[in-house]
Amino acid sequence: MIKVLAVAVSGVLAGSAAWAGPYVNVENNAGYSGGDYLGATTDFHVGFEGAQDVYSYYVQGGPAYSSPQGEDGEFELSGKIGGNVQATDQFGVYGELSFITADEDPSVGSKIGVKYSF
Questions:
Q1: How far is CA 106 from CA 19, 65, 94, in A?
Q2: What pTM did the predictor assign?
Q3: Exposed/middle/buried for 88, CB within 10 Å: 0-12, 13-18, 19+?
Q4: Alpha-carbon distance 3 to 10, whole Å?
Q5: DSSP code for 54
Q6: Would you tell me how many other CB atoms lie within 10 Å of the CB of residue 7?
Q7: What tens-digit pLDDT sequence spans the chain (118 residues)?
Q8: Distance from C-alpha of 83 to C-alpha of 72, rounded to nearest angstrom
Q9: In this structure, what DSSP letter does residue 69 have?
Q10: 82 beta partners
Q11: Residue 86: in which H helix or E strand, if any?
Q12: Is 46 in contact with 60 (CB distance < 8 Å)?
């Protein structure tokens, strides 16, 4: 029994060089300006993420409920794609592109940054 447990635990601890898998992400983003509530958008996304060596990535999308203050809320379509390159054990570079549909033109956003861990 102890040998079976040791083998099972060693497989989990050893891990693998690559991983990938689906996920669900529910996220709410609210906005305020000068103490005034502007509204919120809640994403209900299904995604897929993976990694190999120093690279990781994700892609997700689905409905988003947008509710501006004082207006009726409505469902839109939104999504994100992003990734990370871990240059060293302590330093990484990441980026993300996102979108949400609208009545006229879709809104597009971008994010890029670096992260240093102590």
A1: 32, 15, 23
A2: 0.75
A3: exposed
A4: 10
A5: T
A6: 9
A7: 444 434 443 444 344 456 789 999 999 999 999 999 999 999 999 999 999 999 999 999 999 999 999 999 999 999 999 999 999 999 999 999 999 998 778 899 999 999 999 9
A8: 34
A9: T
A10: 58, 96
A11: strand 74-86
A12: yes
Structure tokens at 87: 């240059």
Q: Which two tokens stand for residue 4?
A: 């079976």
Give the number of other Cβ atoms within 10 Å of residue 14's Cβ.
7
Q: Which residue has the tokens 């997700």?
A: 60
Tokens standing for residue 58:
């994700």
Structure tokens at 27: 């996220």
* Lookup: tokens for 5: 């447990």
Contact indicator for 34, 67 with CB cutoff of 8 Å: no
The strand pair at 18-33 and 36-52 is best described as antiparallel
DSSP-derived letter for residue 16 is: -
